[in-house]
Amino acid sequence: MAAISSTVPTAPAPLLHSTVLGWYEVNARDLPWRAPDASPWAVMVSEFMLQQTPVKRVLPAYEAWLLRWPTPAALAADAPGEAVRMWGRLGYPRRALRLHAAATAITEQHGGQVPDDHAALLALPGVGEYTAAAVASFAFRRRHVVLDTNVRRVIARAVTGVEYPAQATTAAERRTATALLPESAERAAAWAVGVMELGALVCTARSPECGQCPLRRHCAWQLAGRPPYEGPARRGQSYEGTDRQVRGMLLAVLREAHGEVEQARLDAVWPEPVQRARALDGLVADGLVEPVAQGVYRLPQ
User: Fold this and answer.
1) pLDDT value of position 192
2) Cystine design at 220: which of 4, 25, 88, 287 (Cβ 3.0–4.6 Å)?
3) How far is residue 72's CA from residue 265's CA, in Å, rounded to a whole number?
4) Containing H/E element for 139?
5) Strand partners, 293
6) Catalytic pick among 25, 47, 186, 230
7) Across the 301 residues of the chain, what is the mean pLDDT of every consecutive 10-residue run?
8) Please, which residues bridge with residue 261 across strands?
9) φ and ψ at 296, to 5 degrees?
10) Whether 283 contacts 61, CB under 8 Å
């Protein structure tokens, strides 16, 4: 059977809302950034860390981060290199610099308080459309479309009838998500996190547990016979032997040094000199490493 191409839900939106929210109330994970007393800053930290990183890896880093920097002002008062150091092995360490830059802007422009306005959040350095919507929704219970990978996949299957969404968010996808958004701000915020959790736990990318899904009777993809994906090839990100791996090894030396590091120590982490030099140059260009003198480097001050 062909995939359903319509973006009209196979069930009324209020029924989809109540179904997902009922499931979420019973099945939601107990995560610290969802606690009633979690500050907007805590929510923002979690959103930065959770980008492309699983929850189980984020949890210890998140707790250590907030213990050291419980407010934006606390982070802004420290050197950006300390943010890179504390980021540890989470990956994509430019996120640490962006979070430090956002904390500095919050401290200087908003009195140390994370702004509750979507436009003000979006104006912060390092904050894109998704993060601004997520913080506004989860921290301040505002009504916004929150489209992460999990949400996009649930909507693609349940409403559009395709296995995977496009690799980049489309205007049609955003229109569909907007049409599904509950009118009540509180319910919209709950819907956003509920759909996200459903995508993370049940409607997963590789092995969806359709038999356990609360939307199985309403899911366009399921009703269409689960047609296989026909879009562009979906390639996983390699790591072994890549510049990204070398960058991580170089940063590990600098994080552990707590000071300046000579070239010879960096040279020892990877045998191929051209790739090693390229990776180090990239770290410098990204602001993650500072040259101090010829052949001497440190984390940014």
Assistant:
1) 97
2) 4
3) 34
4) helix 129-140
5) 296
6) 47
7) 46 93 98 97 98 94 98 98 95 96 98 97 97 98 96 96 93 95 97 98 96 96 92 74 93 94 95 96 96 96 93
8) 297
9) -130, 135
10) no
Annotation says 47 is catalytic:
yes
| SS3 call for 210 | helix
Q: Which parts of 144-272 fold into alpha helices (H)?
A: 149-155, 171-180, 185-201, 220-223, 243-257, 263-267
Q: Residue 25: which residues within 8 A CB-CB, separation 6 or more?
A: none
Residue 206, number of CB atoms within 10 A of its CB: 4
Q: Rounded distance, CA 46 to CA 220, Å?
A: 32
Judge residue 70's burial from the number of C-beta atoms within 10 Å of its C-beta, 0-12 exposed, 13-18 middle, 19 or more buried. middle
- Whether residue 191 contacts residue 155, with contact meaning beta carbons closer than 8 Å, is answered with no
* CA–CA gap between residue 93 and residue 80 (Å, rounded): 11
Whether 187 and 253 have beta carbons less than 8 Å apart is answered as no
Q: What pLDDT is attached to residue 9?
A: 58
In the block, residue with structure tokens 């356990």: 212
pTM of the model: 0.91
| 85-122 residues labelled b (16+ CB within 10 A) or e (exposed) | bbbbebeebebbbbbbbbbbbbbeebeeebbeebebbb
Helices (H) and strands (E) in the chain, counts: 15, 3
- Apex CA 111: angle with CA 110 and CA 112, to 5°? 95
Q: Smallest Cα–Cα separation from 299: which of 246, 248, 251, 262?
A: 251
Among candidate residues 148, 144, 130, the one with its CA nearest the CA of residue 188 = 144
